[in-house]
């Protein structure tokens, strides 16, 4: 039963996918006698948190009395400090809600465990975690950023079964099908920043924006290059333009990520090509791999590969991964993995 309601709270949280950064995605549902009193979710930094949203929705629906003795399911530990808004713990206590069931603890050092203690001291029951892995996963960008002041980095590639991303001459559109490419749009919607290599920019002239999604939120664009250059490329001429990144080694990449983190960029999507992929992997900045694999074999020694610039002399140099998930996207497969450095 707890799982059912927590799943509803997670679904609520994801209604704002891509809109809450640098805040987390948080959802809630208030339940009494196995009936929903109100749903709520955090819509945007600076607006109501999920708990306050649900309580306000209940009151506006004339259900203030039903809040007394009700249970609130919330995906993240309620906050108890004054940030952009007042603490949710106060709202919960004052509403008469008697039980909080949470999905995961807020690892933000300012909050971790403090929200629970505050509620317990006020006589509110606290239970959890419920569906903890899912609740941590939907906020993996936030947790990385709040704890390390650096964005969570995802390396995404679309490759043939034999690991090719383009022909020798640079033709790559399209390797994966429409369902996989739609999934990429969802991913872009959730990411604050996106980057491609200079060669990808010149070959593909990519838009690097969000399409096919209601209420799109476009990522900041970055081009990885050894030099600054101009040209009639969409990434330069369309809304927002693009910024160059010249990071070459681990410390330069770390400095670049710190600069992004300081500017409240909590996630960075690297969309290839193969030289960018290898530089990021070598610098050990990649937190997550998303490789889309099409049921195609391109072959060819000179075809471009998804990770080009590594020249391992021994198998010991392979980067070990832990597979997290495999999904079918139309005719393609998506492998989600985490590098083990
Ligand atoms: N299927 C897929 O998912 C994808 C396919 N592609 C395809 O892949 C091809 C491009 O990929 P790829 O050829 O691997 O190139 P990349 O896109 O990875 O870009 C290489 C460029 O990165 C810049 N760079 C900066 N530092 C370095 C460095 N130390 N070493 C090398 N390059 C550096 C250079 O730009 P500069 O010369 O300006 O200094 C270089 O030209 C295109 O054909 C594109 O269509 C691309 C992305 C994804
Ligand atoms: N070829 C290829 C991809 N290529 C990536 O998508 C970029 C194009 O972005 P846009 O112009 O915004 O659609 C391109 O430059 C490269 O980074 N992606 C995929 O999901 N599947 C594919 O088969
Ligand atoms: Zn709050």
UniProtKB/TrEMBL annotation:
The lineage of its organism: Bacteria, Pseudomonadati, Lentisphaerota, Lentisphaeria, Lentisphaerales. PANTHER family: 2,5-DIAMINO-6-RIBOSYLAMINO-4(3H)-PYRIMIDINONE 5'-PHOSPHATE REDUCTASE, DIHYDROFOLATE REDUCTASE FAMILY PROTEIN (AFU_ORTHOLOGUE AFUA_8G06820). It catalyses: 5-amino-6-(5-phospho-D-ribitylamino)uracil + NADP(+) = 5-amino-6-(5-phospho-D-ribosylamino)uracil + NADPH + H(+); 2,5-diamino-6-hydroxy-4-(5-phosphoribosylamino)-pyrimidine + H2O + H(+) = 5-amino-6-(5-phospho-D-ribosylamino)uracil + NH4(+). The gene is ribD. The keyword NADP applies. Transmembrane segments: none annotated. Keywords: Hydrolase, Metal-binding, Multifunctional enzyme, NADP, Oxidoreductase, Riboflavin biosynthesis, Zinc. This is Riboflavin biosynthesis protein RibD. Pathway: Cofactor biosynthesis; riboflavin biosynthesis; 5-amino-6-(D-ribitylamino)uracil from GTP: step 3/4; Cofactor biosynthesis; riboflavin biosynthesis; 5-amino-6-(D-ribitylamino)uracil from GTP: step 2/4. Its cofactor is Zn(2+).
């Amino acid at each position: 039963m707890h799982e059912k309601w927590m799943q509803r709270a997670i679904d609520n949280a994801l209604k704002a996918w891509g809109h809450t950064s640098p805040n987390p995605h948080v959802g809630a549902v208030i339940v009494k006698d196995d009936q929903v009193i109100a749903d709520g979710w955090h819509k945007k930094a600076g607006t109501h948190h999920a708990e306050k949203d649900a309580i306000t929705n209940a009151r506006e629906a004339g259900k203030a009395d039903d809040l007394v003795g009700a249970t609130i399911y919330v995906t993240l530990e309620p906050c108890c400090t004054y940030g952009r808004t007042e603490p949710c713990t106060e709202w919960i206590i004052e509403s008469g809600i008697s039980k909080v069931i949470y999905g995961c603890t807020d690892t933000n050092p300012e909050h971790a465990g403090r929200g629970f203690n505050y509620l317990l001291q006020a006589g509110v029951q606290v239970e959890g975690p419920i569906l903890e892995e899912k609740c941590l996963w939907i906020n993996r960008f936030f947790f990385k950023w709040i704890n390390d002041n650096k964005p969570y980095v995802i390396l995404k590639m679309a490759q043939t079964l034999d690991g090719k991303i383009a022909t020798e001459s640079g033709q790559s559109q399209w390797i994966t099908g429409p369902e996989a490419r739609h999934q990429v749009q969802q991913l872009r919607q959730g990411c604050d920043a996106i980057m491609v290599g200079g060669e990808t920019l010149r070959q593909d002239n990519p838009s690097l924006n969000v399409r096919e999604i209601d209420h799109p939120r476009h990522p900041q664009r970055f081009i990885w290059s050894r030099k600054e250059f101009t040209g009639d490329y969409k990434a330069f001429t369309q809304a927002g333009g693009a910024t160059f990144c010249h990071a070459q080694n681990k410390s330069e990449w770390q400095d670049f990520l710190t600069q992004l983190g300081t500017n409240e960029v909590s996630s960075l999507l690297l969309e290839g090509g193969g030289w960018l992929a290898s530089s990021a992997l070598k610098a050990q900045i990649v937190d997550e791999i998303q490789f889309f694999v099409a049921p195609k074999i391109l072959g060819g020694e000179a075809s471009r590969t998804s990770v080009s610039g590594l020249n391992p002399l021994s198998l010991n140099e392979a980067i070990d991964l832990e597979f997290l998930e495999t999904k079918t996207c139309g005719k393609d497969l998506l492998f989600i993995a985490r590098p083990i450095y």
